[in-house]
């Protein structure tokens, strides 16, 4: 078997066999196929696509390229959740203790962020003492006894994806749907969960800018998950403005606590509850989402969801009260320049402003400042008057103020009227 033959077949839109895809993954991972041939192969996939069967086989082959996590010692159906990434996305911080409060085990492997703000691990590390490196015994014990365990990704998970993604990044083939889907799902499958809910973000602050693009990606990913024996549901959620009010690591942890206390903004609360409802059904606790939603609402109303979050922090070594001690040294208000209705927001620009403050990373080597961030005070459709505060900046380097303010002023548009209706959840794909 030769790599050039696989390139030729895919160039002419012919379907690759299981043996051919396995040959590619195994030999590229081991260094037997040069980058220039894989670059041509990735570009052929970009233009010709892959069938459901090809994409499923590619995903499983990438899973098989490295270690996998065995969660069979954890009692019950283990449910995981993945977000394709957005601005102000603290949903994992909310749904992890919320689902655990129902008695459904959440054993989650999470990563750090590269971009707007930190990933789930970075947000949790804003809590003093929080330990993200757990032994196998600690991870299993926490999941069984407390129904919640979260650790950083470790080991040699999906090395084929790491190698292929690096090449896609420099050959402009990142936005190939089969390659995106297999990249995401290979990591989820290797992480060992029994069921997966995918939060596919759509809009200005997301990788997928339109509902049509997001639907196509979600359909491929759910097909892969279900084909590989994981019950998989995708929820398409709106990222045309930051989710919730806070952007930044300690800020977002504090907002997650507000949601778990029943005091969260409507958008972050609704998105979290829809995703959690589907997780509860996949976890076998309820027969439909309506029953699950009622149970979840009750857990928040009774205070059990918040207590589970505090317990989660405690068992992983964290000091819950420390999240209120992470305060930046400079607080600046960014005010509206005119009267009118807030008609659009560029979430990506707001995320970029937060990254400039130090809330995210532009390179893997950058260190995150957990205390900096941005509060957004008005949502799309709100009426504002000149000099109303649109954003509050929390910064430790005042020299960044002018640049960040300019970025924020370029991130929104005010007009006379707003006649649209902002949807939080677009659709569910199973």
UniProtKB/TrEMBL annotation:
Catalyzes phosphorolysis of the pyrimidine nucleosides uridine, thymidine and 2'-deoxyuridine with the formation of the corresponding pyrimidine base and ribose-1-phosphate. This is Pyrimidine-nucleoside phosphorylase. Homodimer. Keywords: Glycosyltransferase, Transferase. Pfam families: Glycos_trans_3N, Glycos_transf_3, PYNP_C. One of its GO terms (cellular component) is cytosol. SMART domains: PYNP_C. Residues 341-415 form the Pyrimidine nucleoside phosphorylase C-terminal domain. It catalyses: uridine + phosphate = alpha-D-ribose 1-phosphate + uracil; thymidine + phosphate = 2-deoxy-alpha-D-ribose 1-phosphate + thymine; 2'-deoxyuridine + phosphate = 2-deoxy-alpha-D-ribose 1-phosphate + uracil. Its cofactor is K(+). Its EC number is 2.4.2.2. Belongs to the thymidine/pyrimidine-nucleoside phosphorylase family. One of its GO terms (biological process) is pyrimidine nucleobase metabolic process. The gene is deoA. NCBIfam families: PRK05820.1 (NF004490), PRK06078.1 (NF004747), Y_phosphoryl (TIGR02644). PROSITE patterns: THYMID_PHOSPHORYLASE (PS00647). The keyword Aminoacyl-tRNA synthetase does not apply. Transmembrane segments: none annotated.
